[in-house]
Amino acid sequence: MSVTANKSPIDLQSFLFDLRQFERQTAVERQETDHVNVHDDDDDDDDEYHNVDESAADKKKRKRKEAVALAKIKKSKEFARRKAQGTGESDNDDDIAREMMCENSQPFAFQLENCEICGKRFTVTPYSKAGPRGGLLCAKCSKELADDEKKPRANRRGPRSGRRQKQSNLLDGFAQPGAPSLAEMCTKKVADNINDIEEFGDLPPQLLHRLGQILCKRRVLTSRTLNLFLRSDLNFIDIYDAAKLETQDFEKIFAFMPNLYHVNFRFASQMKDKVVDYLLDRDLKIKRLQLDAANLISDACWQQLFRKLGPQLESLKLSNLDSSFDDETVEVMCRECTALQRLKLKQCWKMGNRSLRAISELVSLQHLSLNFVQEVDNEILLNTLSKTSPRLRTLSLEGISTADDRLLDIIHVNCRALTKFRFSDNAVCSDRGFVALFTHWSNPPLEFVDLSSTRDVDNSNPDGPADAIGLASQGFMALMNHSGPGLQKLNIASCRHVSRSAFEEVFAAGKTYPNLEELDVSFHTVVDDYVVGLIFQCCPKLQKLVAFACFNLRDAQVPAGVALIGGLRAQDPIVLQGHHY
């Protein structure tokens, strides 16, 4: 029996009434919903990518931010351009603004997006990368794109002129036209790939030395590359830049090379007392020692070295020592190094008059080079030169400001075998003193002369006093008359009192200086294109001409094989016989 059969007529009527009421209410609600959907299509479209669990407050906040963004877009020039051209899909302002906002917006993190490259659906993260067309990439495509960017791109630059290398070669004095020698090219190729080389093998000593020069110039001589130069059959080691070597590297040199005869370390900042102690324990037969900037060696250790190696040392060159090597150490050196023939002490800060007296006791000295930081007494200097100059073959005095014409007189009287003479940075000696030195001097013609920066330094009187100070016109002509035929290198930079007429007289037509290879006339404002042309005519073997701050030197024609360094147009291409090089 059905359920309705048991109901009374009153209950059945009540049930039907309730059913009609429910259907009527459902129809009303459906109508209202359809009405809302008609007016809120845009809102539903905006909510397409948003979370369905978004609260009313969050939705209101999002709507507010969206309204601000739309208002900002409507004020932009791009919006005005699109509206004027009608490029959008709709003419309604809101539709155009919303379209622009959708183009510029990126999906939020943790939303789903299609990869621009492979089309794969993936979850957006804060680390998702943009693709080439502005879309987002999945993790796999992002990694592949990053790997492609790391690959070296093809060089689109045209062929290089090599100008920078040419200028570097000029500063080094090389102006050889054409290709370098095969040996030089191979040596540089080895230096370019030094990190891939395990050993040099039986490389000739001269090429090994050249490799060391190139690596030191590039500052790539390290503990690893040092091992390539350690050969037990060699008796020399030249390291021109030891700044990257550690203390144990110096010990390793003396351990692997027991036959060392010649040692040359420049910028040896990590050479300490323990290295010298290790050297002395090895009982090496070193006869030529040159150290630069070895400031971590104490005076006591220096003295110990001279007591042990002094009798066998023939050449000693020390430079840039500011924390040690005082007068007492120099006295020990002069007392112990009885066979010393060559001595060079440059920029040793603690040396003074006592050191100068001690040097005068070296009876075997033939080559002397001094550059004092402290001011020394002129009488002590004259006494030292009086004792040592008769045996000297080379003499170099730099920065001795107290020396006067009496020093030049002693050199004129005592020196009979000089081949090299350097006397620079002096403002006391006069031009008459230089004339007296080179006139009727029984010494053979000098091969190397450096008289740079011997001039008056009174800036208020640039022409100098009437009695010229330093090397001037008469002294320059006397020098060239005496040493011109044998001169190979000449430096008269900053001798500003040499006149133009003196240059024209020295390099006049018909005169020849057959051996002159290097000439420095920097800071001579009287030197111009004409004077340089005379120099080229009179010096057939000239290889290097330095002319910094010669402001009248503009368009000189430089012969092939000559390196012109400086000049007003030093940046221009080097000209060789009218052709670009």
Provide a short characterization of the protein structure.
By secondary structure, this protein is an alpha/beta fold. It has 21 helices and 17 strands. One of its GO terms (biological process) is SCF-dependent proteasomal ubiquitin-dependent protein catabolic process.
List unreliable stretches of 5+ residues: 1-10, 32-52, 570-581
The overall pLDDT average reads 84
Structural class by SSE content: alpha/beta
Give me the side-by-side strand order of the main sheet. Answer: 3-4-5-6-7-8-9-10-11-12-13-14-15
Q: Radius of gyration over alpha carbons?
A: 44 Å
Largest β-sheet summary: 13 strands, parallel
| Total number of beta strands | 17
Q: State the helicity in percent bands.
A: 25-40%
The CA-CA distance between the termini, in Å, is 121 Å
Strand content: 5-15%
Summed up, the helix count is: 21
- Oligomeric state of this protein: single chain
Shape: elongated
